[in-house]
Structures are given as C-alpha cells and as structure tokens.
C-alpha cells in the first residue's frame, strides 16, 4: 500500500506548508524557509511513507573529492549528494 502523500500530489505536505505560512509569514521566511519531503520505502512489501519537515537551512554534505585537474564540486553536486537514495538497515 502506498501513502497518499508519496506521489507528491499534496495531502499532508500541503497542510504542513499552509500551516507554516500562516504561523510565520514574513519576507525572511519567504526567502529562507523550505519544506523537506522524505520517503521511506519497504524493500520487501513496497509500502511507502512520506514525512515532511520544515527547514531554515540544509546541512549539505561535501561531495567526494575529485581527482586533480577536475573542477571543484559545485552546489549542484552537493544537492545531488544530499538527495541521493540511501538504503536503511533493518
């Protein structure tokens, strides 16, 4: 079974975001606040569950070092590293 929010069509995520906007509407929150959506999927039955978290900053990991002669990692590389899928141990 799949959680209604997993497809990204709204539901709980929209509700959380509307509440955040009504509780803290300002120029600062418009610029710096965001919403992170995480999905956990069971590798055995395929059930997926989404959760939502408000953030003011993202702790981006440093991408792996590149070999000499290559350009240094970019912000896009750090975002890709942050959004990469990772298996969970049972």
SSE blueprint:
Blueprint: H1 12-23, H2 27-32, E1 34-41, E2 48-55, H3 75-83
Antiparallel strand pairs: 1-2
Describe this structure in words.
With 90 residues, the chain is an alpha+beta fold. The chain is built from three helices and two strands; from the N terminus they run ααββα. A two-stranded antiparallel ribbon has the order 1-2. A hairpin with a 6-residue loop joins strand 1 (34-41) and strand 2 (48-55). The longest helix is centred in the N-terminal third of the chain and has 12 residues, at 12-23. It is flat. The two termini are 19 Å apart.
Précis, in short:
This protein is of the alpha+beta class. The protein contains 3 helices and 2 strands. The protein has a two-stranded antiparallel ribbon.
Instruction: Please outline the major beta sheet.
Output: 2 strands, antiparallel
Q: Look at the helices and sheets and give the structural class.
A: alpha+beta
Q: Quick check: average pLDDT?
A: 80
Q: Could you say which overall geometry the principal axes of the C-alpha atoms support?
A: flat
Strand order, sheet with most strands: 1-2
User: Termini separation (Å)?
Assistant: 19 Å
Uncertain runs with pLDDT below 50, 5 residues or more? none
Number of strands: 2
| Count of discrete alpha- or pi-helical segments spanning 4 or more residues | 3
H and E order:
HHEEH
How much helicity do the residues have? 25-40%
Strand content: 15-25%
Integer-rounded radius of gyration? 17 Å
